[in-house]
Structures are given as C-alpha cells and as structure tokens.
C-alpha cells in the first residue's frame, strides 16, 4: 500500500506536513492518502484510486466535490471583488446579502450575523459576546460556560475548553470556568431500570444542581449541538431540550445551538433545533454553510441577544472583535449559492428521501453481534462496535477496532470515520441510492473482516 520511495507523495507528505487528528501508527504503516480531485461524492488520489467519501469531507462537502454552480459563484465573485474585510463600517454587498439570507432562513423573526473563518472561532466569538454582555450589563461575574461531556465545539483554547473530550487534558484544558454536564446518550449512560424519559429528567436535575452549585449569577451560557457530531453522532435522549430549556430559562441563561454540523439540512430540516423543536437564543453555523467550498463560520444572534449586544456595543462605541477575513466577499457569494443549492435544488429533499434507506442500512448492519447500537438522525449515523452486545462491553482500546474498520473501508474505496468505538457515516446530500448501496456493501464487508480478526 505505502510507497516508501523518498520522492513518493506519501514520503513527501510525511516529511513536510504535520497531521492533525491523525492516528500516526496507521499513517506510518499505510501512508497518507494524497488527493488530487473529486467528482460528485468521490475523491481521487495521486495513484488514480477512487474513494466514495461517506463523510462528505468533514461533514461539509454536502454538494459533492465538483458542483458547477458553486465553482461558478466563486469564479464570478473573484472577478468582481476578490477580497475585503468587515471592519470600520465597511463590508461587501455579498456580506450584507448573506446576513439577510441567514436571518431569513433562521428560526428567528429577526436577528444579526457576525462572521468568522471557522466553527471554533464562531464559538469563541459567541463566548466573548456573552462575556462582553455580562461586563456591560453590570454582571462581570457571569463568565462560566456549560457544555456536555462528549460535545465537540472546536479546537481554539476557548472552544476546546467547551469540547467535552478527554484529549483536552493533554493541553491542560479546559480553562477554569468551563463546566461539562452529562451526555444525553441513553444507551450508554442510562442506569439499570431507568426509562429514557427518567434518564432525561435526571440530566435536567443534574443541570439545575450544577447551576445552583456554581451560582446562577456566575453562568454566561449553555451551548449544545442538537445532535452531537464528533462525539460519535449522539441524538439527544427523548424530550432532552424540552427538559433543559426551562431550567436555563429559570436562571436567565442563554441557550446557544451549535449547529455547525446540523445546520443547513443534515438532520432533515434546515436546523437541528427545528428537528428537535426548540428555540435557541443564538446559533453557531459553519461547515456546510458554504458546502465546504470556503472557510466560514457565522454567529446568528436571535432578537434578544442582538438587541442587547447592540446596546452594549453602543455604550463603548464598538464591539472590539473581528477577524481579517470575516465576511469575505467570495465566501459570502459561495454561501449564498450553497444555501440556494441545498434548499432549492433538491438536496434538502434528497436528505429526507434517503433517510429511511440510510436508517434501514444502519439497522441491518447493527444486527451484527459486534455492533451494540446504531443511532442517527437524517443523514448522520453511527454504528458502535462492542465486544459483548448484551453487556455493551467495548473492545479493548489497544485493538483499535474502529480504526481498523475505517482502514479496511479505505482499502475498498470507501471513506468513513472512526470515532471512539464507533464508525460514523455522514454522506453528502447529493448521494444516490446506488451510491448508498455501494457504501453499505463496502462497510458491511469491512465489518465482517475486522470482527473475524478480533472477535
Ligand atoms: C467542526 C465543529 C466545530 C469546529 O469547527 P472548525 O471549523 O473545525 O473550527 C464546532 N462545533 C461543531 C459542532 C463542529 O462539528
């Protein structure tokens, strides 16, 4: 598999590039997959091998890798006005139009948008907005941020502190004041004899107890992904948001929906908060906001937060925050086109149309005695590998079972992602039924092979 010649792409990648979130033993043994181009949902490597990317890049390339309308929108805007910032009272017309569009498609009656280059920066920005509000409104002690165990909110120092993953301790994170409450994964964390509804109520009580213990006046906000993505595709337990939102309201704590993965169609509606029927105070968007054709994040403030932030900024004459490339005209032109493509060119409909087939495929593979659970919503799903299905006992970590499954898939021309003991699928919205069959056949073969080796 790996070409060890010093001038091979694999060796050059290894010698020159530092990998993020990459299993180094795997890459040393197998070599980096160096890519040249894509076509529809397929990507191609330097050896001409094709892979069906069942992860849409990193959840984001929902319109595939060669969408002509998106390429055209980018080209046209590069010719018209290839770059500008959004500071000092200036911004591009595309930026204005995208803000109007984002508010229009948001669940809010009105609101305002602030741009960043990534989801991490959007979460950081929202936290700074809440800190700024606390200081401006006479509550400088309102600084603590509550998120959940297994949540993923990004990698900058603040957003990593929000992320509820054990690897953050390698960086000495979280920073003080970042608090993690229970993960709403009933299958894994429900207690013996506890119904799903009782489990949800327990989490709501735990949240309230945490708020009281920390001091309600010290808490700036609660952030949650409607479906946890990088935690292993974890839909909330039954009634979860209906149970936690009244608790937050009781103490005046804003609920921010981190819609970086769920936003723009992934769960079958434009927003995950619509799928789970709750109204957040603000929304964090990124990833498929541009269908992955440009780096962009956005904070969408609902009416109340928008008004309060406006008043707080007026009082000191500015909101002293922003990134050089925030609201980039090319990114905004692409996002306008991407939203149109997803919402009006049949992609969102295809998500809804394909979901039953997707769920049936996951359920079929979950009949395997070494799959403990399948879970998902819309076109995001996961299969969790277990050594013992009845007791839900995981395989020993050093067997790297999910890594081996994903590697075996790669060998057969399918990209999917290991996350903990789970295999994650989040196909692009343009996927056809035949491509979905190909995806499940290849994954099924990989599961069979790896479980035969380890079970
Ligand atoms: C990916 C992700 C982020 C971070 O976005 P980046 O663009 O990688 O910084 C934040 N929140 C969620 C829910 C994500 O999935």
Give keywords.
455 residues, alpha/beta, 7-stranded mixed β-sheet, 42% helix, globular, binds pyridoxal-5'-phosphate, Aminotrans_3_PPA_site, PyrdxlP-dep_Trfase_small, adenosylmethionine-8-amino-7-oxononanoate transaminase activity
Short description:
The protein is of the alpha/beta class. The chain has helices spanning 9-16, 24-30, 56-59, 68-80, 93-105, 119-136, 157-162, 186-189, 196-214, 240-250, 272-275, 303-316, 329-344, 347-365, 401-411, 433-454; strands at residues 35-39, 42-45, 50-53, 112-116, 144-148, 178-181, 219-224, 255-258, 282-285, 297-301, 371-377, 380-385, 414-415, 417-419, 422-425.
What does this protein look like?
This protein has 455 residues and is an alpha/beta fold. Helix content is 42%, strand content 15%. The chain has 16 helices and 15 strands. The protein binds pyridoxal-5'-phosphate. Pyridoxal-5'-phosphate is lined by residues 118-120, 123, 152-154, 225, 229-230, 258, 260-261, 286-287. Pyridoxal-5'-phosphate (PLP) binds next to helix 6. Its cofactor is pyridoxal 5'-phosphate. GO terms for molecular function: adenosylmethionine-8-amino-7-oxononanoate transaminase activity; pyridoxal phosphate binding. Keywords: Aminotransferase, Pyridoxal phosphate, Transferase. Pfam families: Aminotran_3 (PF00202).
Write the layout of secondary structure elements.
Blueprint: H1 9-16, H2 24-30, E1 35-39, E2 42-45, E3 50-53, H3 56-59, H4 68-80, H5 93-105, E4 112-116, H6 119-136, E5 144-148, H7 157-162, E6 178-181, H8 186-189, H9 196-214, E7 219-224, H10 240-250, E8 255-258, H11 272-275, E9 282-285, E10 297-301, H12 303-316, H13 329-344, H14 347-365, E11 371-377, E12 380-385, H15 401-411, E13 414-415, E14 417-419, E15 422-425, H16 433-454
Parallel strand pairs: 3-13, 5-6, 5-7, 7-8, 8-9
Antiparallel strand pairs: 1-2, 2-3, 4-10, 9-10, 11-12, 12-15, 14-15
Helix pairs in contact: 4-13, 5-13, 6-12, 9-10, 14-16, 15-16
Bound molecules: pyridoxal-5'-phosphate.
The site of pyridoxal-5'-phosphate has 15 residues, from helix 6.
